[in-house]
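Step 1: inspect the first sequence and its tokens.
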Amino acid sequence: MRKLATNLLNATAVILFISFFAFLSSCSNENNLGYFDAATAKIIGEINHPDVYAPNVPPPVKPNRGALKQIINMEVVEKVGRLADGVEYDFWTFSGTVPGQFIRIAEGDEVEFHLKNHPDNKFAHNIDLHAVTGPGGGAASSFTAPGHESIFSFKALNPGLYVYHCATAPVGMHIANGMYGLILVEPKEGLPEVDREYYIMQGDFYTAGKYGDRGLQAFSMQKALEENPDYVVFNGSVGSLTGDNSLQAEVGETIRLYVGNGGPNLVSSFHVIGEIFDKVYVEGGDMINNNVQTTIIPAGGAAIVEFKVDVPGEAILVDHSIFRAFNKGAIGKIHISGEENKAIYSGKLDDRIYQIEGGAIQVMPEVEKEPIIAGSLKEKITEGKIVYDNFCKACHQAGGKGFTGVYPPLANSSYFKGEPNKAISTIVNGLSGPIMVNGTEYNSAMPAQVLTDEEVSNVVTYILNDFDNGGGEVTPAQVKAQRK
């Protein structure tokens, strides 16, 4: 009898042991006892992933919602579009935009991916998603000829922010033409709540013509090989995040930026002028760095940055390899509205005249160097454009458009239209304090420029004739008079 009881106890113990591990196995997909296996997460439903394009992102993942099957449709479109004002480019795109749509899924989700190549396209394409564990990140299963559709699936195993791009040979050319985007795999518990989220992606473009050359520009393989882009831009074009396209925020809000770098070549030094990143998810992964001024984003990489906006104004997004921002297009804005907080930022408290050498305000003298003498009006305009490109364009931009709220426009300028002496004096003597230009107040400073009388006369002549300022011609004698 005792032996029978012992056997029953042993059998019961075995049954309980087996049952316990069966319970653990059945609970693993629901993250009980802290365990979660994304590879075997049970699918509890199916949805069509929404199509959302930069700078917007889809809604956040509901925390611990369970794994879903997500069906993603993406169409490759080869199309001519705007690269800059007056400049067009033959883009190759995912779903007609650069970057392609923002994909937002959760750890453990299963994705059924449909890549469609528009029948009017000329080239075959595929997709490599850095979030995919498998040959080519999906590229091996998605090579698609024009007029065809490829379908494959994958499991989202690792949370993070990842780049996707075309990986059809020549890979660099497909990426350089705009074929990239971001895919966010949220952790199963989701990301912390913020007030606003935006999608920004940098890319470098290599054109046959120089920056600002008008018309349809072809891709330059030679410049791409030399890693010497004419344009470095956010979201596919110069000005995509400025003016009416500026991002918006309110004082007191927390902003999260999903920032990618499609490359194909340059590393981005991403910075927001006037803000400090409270958090940076380094390279889009789990590691969080705090109180960061500028974060490096490699080509084919990404980062998540978060910061709270405390004062109104405009925060300027740049690649802090700074000539890319002011000379090649990698610049954007966040317009922040709300009440001022003088304790955090006072604004200008005073504006005084700074005098030296007995109170005389110094004026830049004419530089002693061999002048280039332009004879005809056409020659003066040609020489003036060279001066403008070298000394003026970085601030006032190609075509004299300026930068709203920062640098006034020179094109069709109400400030000196019909009064070229104002333009001359500004160049040779400098200018500070508030002025009204085309109905907008600008309150900044321009230092006197170190240029010869001949150079000043040429550049003002160029501005008068090429920027819709009524035409005219300025002589070196007029410049000399203003210098006095």
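Step 2: inspect the second sequence and its tokens, then contrast the two.
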Amino acid sequence: MLETLLTMQQRLNATPHLLRLGRLFCETVLIEVEDQSFYLEFRDGRLVSVTPGPSTRTPWRFALRTDRAALEAFWEPLPKPGFHDIFGLVKIGRGRIDGDILTLVKNLRFFKEFMALGRLQGNEERPA
């Protein structure tokens, strides 16, 4: 999971339109997948750090919580209905969003496109 998030960080840095969309986004986001937690710190639309958790000392603005199988289905090149979107995961009961929803909604396109950077492209294999 950590390798995928680091790959997403590299892809974000190579995607100018996404950096432009997120230029005002300066928050820490919690991604929780079963028993693993990751704190993604964004500064001016760039992912500056990915810190494994859990940590009771790391404040976060909003959290996306899901299970590994759902996230892997979300990251397929052409996800099935319900797995195509973070709100789709919530709707089918495979995800939960907690925290400051207003901050998420204000930056929704940026965050949704960032999460889609984990999707496999071409004949890539998922990092372990």
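Step 3: confirm your contrast with the notes below.
Residues 27 and 68 are 24 Å apart (CA to CA). The domain at 2-116 is CATH 3.30.1050.10 (Nonspecific Lipid-transfer Protein; Chain A).
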